[in-house]
Amino acid sequence: MNARTEPAQGEPLTPARPPVVRELLLVAGLFVVYKLGRQLAAGHTGEAFRNAHDVWHLERLLRLPEEGSVQSLLLHGDTLVRIANTYYATVHFPATLAFLIWLYLRRPAHYVWARRVLAAVTAAALVLHLALPLAPPRMLAATGLTDTARVFGPSVYGPPRTDHLSNQFAAMPSLHFGWALMVAIGLIVATRSRWRGLWLLHPALTLLVIVGTANHYWLDAIAAAVLLGLALALIRPPRPAVTSAVPGARTVVPAEEPVLVGAAR
Fold first, then answer.
1. How far apart are CA 174 and CA 148, in angstroms?
2. Cβ within 8 Å of residue 168, ≥6 positions away
3. How many CB atoms lie within 10 A of CB 148?
4. DSSP letter assigned to residue 173
5. CA-wise closest residue to 115 among 127, 125, 129, 103
6. Mean pLDDT split into 10-residue runs, the chain, 265 residues
7. Taking a C-beta distance cutoff of 8 angstroms, is the pair 213, 138 a contact?
8. How far apart are CA 218 and CA 143, in angstroms?
9. What is the value of pTM for the model shown?
10. Cβ neighbours of residue 58 closer than 8 Å, sequence gap 6 or more
11. Nearest 5 degrees, angle CA 243-CA 116-CA 224?
């Protein structure tokens, strides 16, 4: 007789959500490690500026466009540059948190995948921050760039010598860009809307903002994208579910665990 695909007995059709208290602690821990871990690399001022000169010259050797070409677009008007500074200061954490909350509520399996990827990228980034302290382009006189947040506001950073809440010498990789790219990829993978590709506007806008405000080099974003690519290659998303082959049935079966019945009858 013909075999048909049916769900295994007792198998849940929708993946169970992880315990909310545990996930709150894990996500909160991710953000705390991100903030505290960056401070471990603080204090390497001389090395950070030497590395900044090397990165700047490497970009010129690679013929990457100068960051000033993006900043000049923002400096056409005070309003535009203040919007960019506000985006840099306020969108990064809330957008990532909203992304995780939505996945947790609507796509539990994708939530676990995305949380693991973000944790892996963040851990790898912190290691690179320790190994390669890097002053951002706004601090490097050779770039000729303006610290837009300090001049126009709002700014999330104080003077480097007195700012004990963040490590301003952790420019590479840019987790602003890495997290934004993961938010877009995660939503594209987890949804089926024909317009889901528009989520890529979030990392694209983030890239223009972090470069235009002189907080990051192009290579900072490239390094973040490489780390994210490696994490995505190692941590695979859940497979989409398929509908039952029985005519008229509406049962949804996880594609990775089909059970064949009736083949020996």
1. 18
2. 42, 135, 136, 139, 157, 160
3. 23
4. S
5. 103
6. 45 63 77 66 79 96 93 90 94 93 92 93 90 92 92 77 63 94 96 94 97 96 97 89 47 44 41
7. yes
8. 13
9. 0.81
10. 219
11. 115
